[in-house]
Structures are given as structure tokens and as C-alpha cells.
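Support reply, case 0932

Customer input (verbatim):
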Amino acid sequence: MARTAARQPVPTRRADAERNIAAILEAGTRLLSADPTASVADIAKAAGVGRVTLYGHFPSREALVDAVCDHAVEVAEAVLADDSIETAPAPEAMARLLRSSWEVLDRHRRLFVAADRVLATERIREHHDKPLRRVERLIVRGQREGGFRTDLPPAWLVTTFFSIIHSAAQEREAGRLAPDEVEPVLVKTMLSLLTPARP
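Our regenerated output:
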């Protein structure tokens, strides 16, 4: 009787695929955060997989960078989760949120340089939807409590927050802002924008 070839169980294949994806995302985050021009081949090698395996999960550089950005933002979201931001006076909470956001973004600013090269601005913004919801809650609370201006809509102020912090990353990367300047510049700029006008 002919013997049938042993088949690899599907759960094992799935577990292998998940391990490969996790390794690729970790390697992609690490390499692109160090060098936005890091190649797909370099990322595959650092992840311990072949290029065929990498392309099996991420069929283009754009798809890979997109997934790496998503992964980096998920990691950042865990770092930014701070209950005190929900309870501190709004201006103090905003300064705290800007400092922690910048700390995370500075670590990955070159990753977002890579993203700027292959992803649409709107797609990059979509990656930040979850962290930006925290910003919006804080702005709405600050407006309700009188700590922030109410003559501009919260959605616009959230967009301004996003634009300012990413512009700071670009200025830092270009050398137009020194490392120790960025955080105080960010806090002063955003709080001056949010402060209600004096009667």
C-alpha cells in the first residue's frame, strides 16, 4: 500500500507564519528607525527569513512600511497610556502628552521619513487615529473646563497637534532643531495655540 505523505498541520503553519510576521515587523521597525533607506533584503535578513517569505506576507515595500508603521504606533499607544493625562488640569496634561509623544516619535522619526516616501499623508494620519483620539478627548475636556480656547473646533486642533509634532520630527531630522530644543518648542507652540485669548 502506498504511503501518503505526512501533511504539516495547519495550526503549525499558521504559528510559523505569525512568528515570521512578528520577526519581520520587529526588524522593519528597528532598521527603518535607524535608516529610512534600509532595503527589503536587509529587513528580511535581520528577521531571519528569506525575501520570498517576506514578500509572501508583504508584497511590496509600501505594504511592508505600512505594516511597520502600524506596529510602531501600536507599541507607542501602550507607552502613551497614562491615567494621569485623563485627570490632570488640561494644560498640564497636554504638556505631559506632548513630552511622551515626542519621546516615542523621536525614537521612530526616521521610520516616518521612510513612510513619507511611500505612503500618502492621509494614510500616515490614519495610522495615528487611535492615539489622536486621546488628544481629542483631552482638547474637548480642556475646552469644557475653560483651559483651552473654544473658538476653534476640536478636530482642527487635533490636526494641528498632528502637524506640529510631525513637523518637529522633520526639523529635528534635518538638523534645524537641536535635540534639546524640540520638546520645549513643541510644548510652548501647542500651549500657546490652545490658550484662550484674554478678554
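We compared this against your earlier run and they match. Two observations from our side: Residues 61-194 form a domain with the Tetracycline Repressor; domain 2 fold (CATH 1.10.357.10). The CA atoms of residues 39 and 61 lie 9 Å apart. Please reopen the case if you see a mismatch on your end.
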